[in-house]
């Protein structure tokens, strides 16, 4: 699954304060344990690709029933993502993520003991609840325990482990492919589920941000002392107080039309909403998850055996992982817009060739080559860049609601594509279906070229100016209270220790900003 939820605007408790190395190492340990939720996200969305070959034979599933086994997880994920925020706010991040790990384990158990199609659907729905909850809560928890100097890498850890989870799911499918034991394929997921629950419960502390909102200052100070000294702990708590006061003043100044979801329909937010929702749908209607979910089934159509099909899926998982690492290391150098254009251009070309290879019955090795190249083009650009863009494109007052709306559209689009793919492919042909995806990628390339600005090295105000320029409009001013600090992809409620003064532009490194003159 290539769409993971990333909560933009999430800030850690120790922004712009340098921690002792021992404290940073401890935070990395906590982050790895929390990010096991991302691993499970990838594993439980990917493992069905190989298992489906054998489930279909055991339960005599039709094409639509196969689609349901895949897509019912996405229905659960949408629900899980919607309710996870309230659970995290009510119980705290620590308890919530522990519970989500147990839900992963429960869904795995039900899948393993399933003896009919209906029970398997229930299992996949439960796993979907866990996947959605993890997608919404893990990035927030990671952001709230990490200092600014390593926060980018820690948040990228979640995305990285999602791709590792997908790769591991393919390897597990391969390990049990000769026996056809799909129950064992699912059963492996119980191990990381228990690691997540036990590790977070016994090792990881509660989020400092949540403790502060609950008025538990002494618990907050106690937790901070695990990574820093008393003086810095007090400085961090004072920063929280400043931000809370600033946020209260900003909230009081907002009109009734600027609160809740209504803010997304205001003139100041509409261009960002158009870009965010379009890119959310484009990421899925470009066809990526038809490969992630159905790779062995697709490869079988080239004449390969079930075992060989899963072997080639492992190659796809490796390419997906490697190119995600490449994207993480180039996104701040090349910029978001350039990576999107390169990615969509190559995606359109390779998925079109993939379609023609099925229509004209080309050599199966060519078909596999085009499939792998398409995955590489996605994973090196559109896959990770979309989630970064969602965190940067919305103005401050709409970041949370805008991200939520884009994430919901992404899940819904994922459901539609995964549910309908096999039915459409059986109706009009597999090759013709891939040509439709190629057409979507071309439209996406044109949309990005015309409407999506570069956001690298720009604060919120500069991003909005570039965005409105591309829509041919003048930006609607957004009130900026004194002390508001902006960074690309996040907005703090007030200045933290050592942050740059308001109004001072960030230093630009790694090249010039991309030209934002609209493409005619």
Keyword list:
520 residues; mainly alpha; two-stranded antiparallel sheet; 20 helices; 1% strand; globular
* Measured distance between first and last alpha carbons: 34 Å
Strand fraction equals under 5%
| Major β-sheet strand ordering | 1-2
Overall mean pLDDT: 82
- Percent of residues in helices comes to over 70%
Major sheet details: 2 strands, antiparallel
Q: Which outline best applies?
A: globular
Description:
The structure is a single chain. This protein is mostly helical and 520 residues long. The chain contains 20 helices and 2 strands. The chain has helices at residues 21-46, 48-59, 63-91, 93-113, 117-145, 148-175, 182-187, 190-202, 208-213, 217-224, 230-253, 270-285, 288-300, 306-334, 336-359, 364-379, 382-393, 399-428, 430-451, 460-470, and strands at 485-487, 490-492. The protein has a two-stranded antiparallel ribbon with strand order 1-2. It starts with 20 loop residues before the first helix and ends in a 28-residue tail after the last strand.
Which helices and strands occur, and which strands form pairs?
Elements: H1 21-46, H2 48-59, H3 63-91, H4 93-113, H5 117-145, H6 148-175, H7 182-187, H8 190-202, H9 208-213, H10 217-224, H11 230-253, H12 270-285, H13 288-300, H14 306-334, H15 336-359, H16 364-379, H17 382-393, H18 399-428, H19 430-451, H20 460-470, E1 485-487, E2 490-492
Antiparallel strand pairs: 1-2
Helix pairs in contact: 1-5, 1-6, 1-8, 2-6, 2-13, 3-4, 3-5, 3-18, 4-5, 4-8, 5-6, 6-14, 10-11, 12-17, 12-18, 12-19, 13-14, 14-15, 14-16, 15-16, 15-17, 15-19, 17-18, 18-19
């Amino acid at each position: 699954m290539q769409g993971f939820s990333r909560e933009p605007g999430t800030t850690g408790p120790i922004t712009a304060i340098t921690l002792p190395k021992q404290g940073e190492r401890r935070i990395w340990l906590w982050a790895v344990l929390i990010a096991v939720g991302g691993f499970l996200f990838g594993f439980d969305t990917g493992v069905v690709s190989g298992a489906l070959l054998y489930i279909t034979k055991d339960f005599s599933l039709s094409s639509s029933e196969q689609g349901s086994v895949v897509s019912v997880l996405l229905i659960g994920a949408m629900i899980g993502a919607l309710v996870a925020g309230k659970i995290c706010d009510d119980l705290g991040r620590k308890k919530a993520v522990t519970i989500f790990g147990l839900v992963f384990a429960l869904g795995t158990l039900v899948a393993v003991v399933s003896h009919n199609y209906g029970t398997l659907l229930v299992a996949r729905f439960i796993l979907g609840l866990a996947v959605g909850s993890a997608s919404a809560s893990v990035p927030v928890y990671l952001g709230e325990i990490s200092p600014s100097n390593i926060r980018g890498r820690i948040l990228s850890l979640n995305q990285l482990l999602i791709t590792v989870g997908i790769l591991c799911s393919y390897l597990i499918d391969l390990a049990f492919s000769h026996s056809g034991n799909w129950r064992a394929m699912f059963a492996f997921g119980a191990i990381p589920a228990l690691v997540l629950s036990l590790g977070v419960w016994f090792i990881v502390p509660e989020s400092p941000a949540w403790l502060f909102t609950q008025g538990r200052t002494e618990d907050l100070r106690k937790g901070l002392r695990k990574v820093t000294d008393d003086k810095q702990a007090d400085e961090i708590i004072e920063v929280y107080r400043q931000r809370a006061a600033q946020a209260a003043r900003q909230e009081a100044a907002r009109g009734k039309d600027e609160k809740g979801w209504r803010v997304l329909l205001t003139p100041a937010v509409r261009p960002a909403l158009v870009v965010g929702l379009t890119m959310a749908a484009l990421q899925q209607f470009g066809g990526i998850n038809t490969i992630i979910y159905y790779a062995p089934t697709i490869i079988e159509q080239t004449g390969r055996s079930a075992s060989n099909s899963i072997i080639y899926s492992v190659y796809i998982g490796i390419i997906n992982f490697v190119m995600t690492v490449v994207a993480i290391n180039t996104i701040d150098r090349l910029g978001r817009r350039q990576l999107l254009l390169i990615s969509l251009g190559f995606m359109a070309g390779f998925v079109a060739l993939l379609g023609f290879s099925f229509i004209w019955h080309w050599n199966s090795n060519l078909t596999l080559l085009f499939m792998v190249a398409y995955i590489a083009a996605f994973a090196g650009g559109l896959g990770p860049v979309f989630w970064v863009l969602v965190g940067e494109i919305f103005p401050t007052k709409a970041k949370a609601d805008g991200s939520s709306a884009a994430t919901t559209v992404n899940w819904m689009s994922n459901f539609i594509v995964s549910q309908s793919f096999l039915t459409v492919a059986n109706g009009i042909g597999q090759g013709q279906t891939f040509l439709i995806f190629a057409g979507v990628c071309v439209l996406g390339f044109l949309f990005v070229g015309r409407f999506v600005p570069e956001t690298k090295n720009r604060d919120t105000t500069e991003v909005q100016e570039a965005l409105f320029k591309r829509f041919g409009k003048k930006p609607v001013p957004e009130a900026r209270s004194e002390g508001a600090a902006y960074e690309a992809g996040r907005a703090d409620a007030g200045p933290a220790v050592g942050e740059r003064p308001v109004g001072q532009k960030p230093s630009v490194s790694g090249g010039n900003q991309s030209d934002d003159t609209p493409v005619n």
